[in-house]
Amino acid sequence: MSEKIKINSSHWVIIIALLAAAFACYLLIEPYVNSIIMAFIISLLMFPIHEWLERKIPKKKNIVSLLSCVILTFIIVIPLLAVFAAIVQQGSLFSQNTYQWVTHGGIQTLFAHPLVVKALSFVNNYLPFDNIEPQAIAQKVGEFATSFGSKLVGISAKILGDATSFLMDFFLMLFVLFFLLRDHDKIISVVRHILPLSRSQEDKLLTEIEQVSKSAVMGSFLTAIAQGIAGGLGMWIAGFPGLFWGTMMGFASFIPVVGTALIWIPAATYLFLTGDTTWAIFLTVYCVAIVGSIDNLLRPLLMQGSAGMNTLMIFFSLLGGIQLFGLIGLIYGPLIFAITIVLFNIYDEEFKDFLNQQDKS
Fold it and tell me: I need a labelling partner for 181 at 20 to 30 A (CA). Which of 240, 293, 312, 337 fits?
């Protein structure tokens, strides 16, 4: 049993002052917290490469950390720029094709389909909504198709306008990452020294934070990339712009429950109503069997072994994380759950005798 520490009034003054100072420090860095946390998580992912570079260039910590940051920049920035350019090009082409389809009677042909006629008749007769007129919908679709290109250009301009903010956040993350990689051993030693836990408890807590951080990134972002690639391939085979819609499916995969169905169901419906029944069936079967299975199999597989978190816990940690923190909640949610479970296990070990005695009473 570890020696008990007697806390007197002066200790409480120090603790309260330290907490107040820590809160003030948090307020100072609060605008940059996401960049700092992302730097920490990426440092865990980059560490195997960093260690390999350290073995190749020993006793040159500054140079090795700088090389690791340069490698990360090439891994992230260059592919993002290439994908962004391709998305703008394919999105503009898609808007032009949609405009041509609408102006050449495609929308009228669609509303003349027997199933669409029956569906509109049912809605207008039995549901408590205003009557849906095909001509009004056709007009709205035409207006949207006409303005889609300019809207896409406007969105692109806004994204480029926000590039300065993105670059500032990115280079701030790189700046923090440099020191995390260079001073990794020192930082871990300081954290271990400050934590009032035994060495085994520290090992358990730090290991779990590392595992959950990695699994959250791998489970969410790699699943989105895999679904985007698979979905884009299916959309391309079915005749749609593959890169554009594959990227949209990758983003849609972050949405709980609905996911990529937000993209492929309207696409398959469009193919079916325009007479491409074979391609509609293909896209539906492909997305359910291939794209859907990636989410059902890959995400839980990549997030296994995190503090005993089961599928239900993972689901609510992702859902709640997005609700509270936005996209970054895909990492924060599982991390908060996992740390809570580890702390609960430490509590269970620390008060084991008392809890057992309570069970017997």
Answer: 337
